[in-house]
Design a protein that fits this description.
Keywords: Cell membrane, Membrane, Transmembrane, Transmembrane helix, Transport. 79% of the residues lie in helices and 0% in strands. It has 19 helices and no strands. Helix 5 (50-56) packs antiparallel against helix 17 (373-416) and helix 14 (312-330) packs antiparallel against helix 15 (339-354). The protein is globular.
Length: 490
């Protein structure tokens, strides 16, 4: 959990540091965004392989390799004095981080019985939600007082300590499994998930009409289709799509994906609003998110215990109702909305999120037989990454297009009311005012779209039922009938 915490924390530490890195390493915005896109791509490629890795290797071995890669990447990035070295360090970090989260979830599913799993997942939710939320605040403070490399130097000693403790304390035995990695499946999976993630991640910046955007998405969709067909035909697939035979898992997966798309509205649009339109400093922008993060961390273990007692349906309905209402509240922002109002709205929204995330995914995973746990966790993590990328691209595109159309309308209206020819200074000021109003309208419109996405997740939540663990599937064809008959006789 400590290893996962610093891995999640590191994912968000870098966002506020990007302008400093651009200036220090003399790179453009289109180049520096690869620190985020590259990280996401490595995750998209590696996470689908984690089901195979968890089945093939021991927890100890996987943890040490994952934590070792993360530590090496962190050290390399911390001493980077040119961009390629920083990018290499970041992608090595991502290769370790991609293994850690599915591994931790699988360990918890195996370690705790169904009736205590909600509490365990609640503690896990504390890490999942708290680490990324405090990232911007911590990053803002470090950037104001130190060089951006300190972000990596700060994480390095913790990563080394966790690696050493894991080396001496982690012990587990496992029967050796005769499994081979399907390299054609790995290639198809990498092209599929990687292409879709890259295409949607680039769409907000390059536009949907860019061949680089729609080309990679088309290649990704075709590769993914071939990958799924290939996996369904294999006896021991790399990623088992038969997890979708279980209705509660399918429902939880759909709700999580829809919710991830809606969530990125807050993570993406709010910093643009507070920093670009309101001129709030990065440090204060980070502090705005802190009460919500603290509320999430307090509520996560509580909702975990509630899940064990009352199940996921009531929690999901209440939580998603809160998320839908507060997201609508964000669609009503003005240029004079108070800082206190923003903190309050974001904190209530965080409360809603903490009631949904872990209970919904835990309820879905509870229905799977033990042998499908690695596939269920890998599938959830991969599809949430894809949903996040799609949500980001969709909301950025909506905001950009709405801002452009509103700028024309507001600008034309302002020109009509001019009684005399304005001075260059007055014209520049008017242009700035028009752009601010247009961007505000674009942000509000994107939040409104996110409200409808959240409402869709709320509608799906009404179909949740308390999941019971399914029996292990019996592999084979003619042989399986004999086995079933024998079991029935016994």
């Amino acid at each position: 959990m400590v290893g996962a915490f610093i891995a999640f924390l590191n994912n968000t530490l870098l966002n506020i540091a990007l302008p400093s890195i651009m200036k220090d390493l003399d790179v453009e915005a289109s180049t520096v965004q690869w620190l985020t896109t590259g990280f996401m791509l490595v995750n998209g490629i590696l996470i689908p392989t984690t089901a195979y890795l968890i089945q093939k290797y021991t927890v100890r071995r996987l943890f040490l390799v994952a934590m070792g890669l993360f530590t090496v990447g962190t050290i390399l990035a911390g001493f980077a004095h040119f961009f390629i070295m920083l990018l290499a360090g970041r992608m090595i970090q991502a290769s370790g981080s991609a293994i850690l989260m599915p591994l931790l979830m699988n360990v918890m599913l195996v370690s705790f019985p169904v009736e205590k799993r909600g509490t365990a997942m609640g503690v896990f939710g504390l890490i999942l939600m708290f680490a990324p939320a405090i990232g911007p605040t911590l990053s803002g403070w470090i950037i104001e007082h130190y060089d951006w490399r300190m972000l990596f130097h700060f994480v390095t000693p913790i990563a080394i300590i966790v690696l050493l403790i894991g080396f001496f304390m982690l012990k587990d035995k496992k029967e050796k499994m005769d499994m081979r990695l399907d390299f054609i499946a790995l290639l198809l999976s990498s092209m599929g998930f990687g292409g879709i993630l890259y295409g949607f991640s680039s769409a907000g910046k390059k536009g949907w009409d860019s061949p680089e955007v729609y080309g990679t998405i088309i290649v990704g969709v075709i590769s993914l289709t071939v990958f799924i067909i290939r996996q369904l035909k294999q006896e021991r697939p790399m990623l088992n799509f038969k997890v979708y035979q279980y209705p509660m898992f399918s429902l939880s997966s759909a709700i999580s994906m829809v919710l991830y798309m809606a969530l990125f509205s807050g993570m993406l649009l709010l910093p643009i609003y507070v920093q670009t339109l309101r001129g709030i400093t990065p440090m204060d922008a980070g502090l705005l998110l802190l009460p919500g993060a603290l509320l999430m961390s307090i509520m996560s273990p509580i909702t975990g215990k509630l899940f064990d007692k009352i199940g996921g349906r009531i929690l999901a309905i209440i939580g998603l109702s809160i998320v839908t209402v507060t997201t609508y509240g964000f669609s009503q922002l003005t240029l004079h909305t108070t800082y206190t109002h923003l903190i309050l709205l974001y904190s209530i929204r965080s409360l809603g999120i903490s009631m949904v995330m872990m209970p919904v995914s835990t309820n879905g995973l509870n229905q799977l037989p033990k042998s499908l746990y690695p596939h269920g966790t890998a599938m959830n993590n991969t599809l949430n990454q894809v949903a996040g990328a799609i949500g980001t691209a969709l909301l950025v595109t909506i905001m950009t297009n709405r801002t452009a159309s509103q700028a024309k309308e507001i600008g034309a209206e302002a020109m009509k009311h001019l009684t005399s020819k304005p001075t260059p200074a007055a014209l520049a000021e008017m242009k700035q005012q028009v752009m601010m109003k247009a961007m505000l309208n674009g942000i509000n419109y994107s939040f409104l779209v996110a409200t409808f996405i959240a409402a869709l997740a709320l509608f799906l939540a009404f179909f949740i039922k308390r999941a019971k663990q399914a029996e292990e599937p019996i592999e084979g064809n003619s042989r399986s009938k004999k086995v079933r008959t024998k079991l029935a006789e016994n």
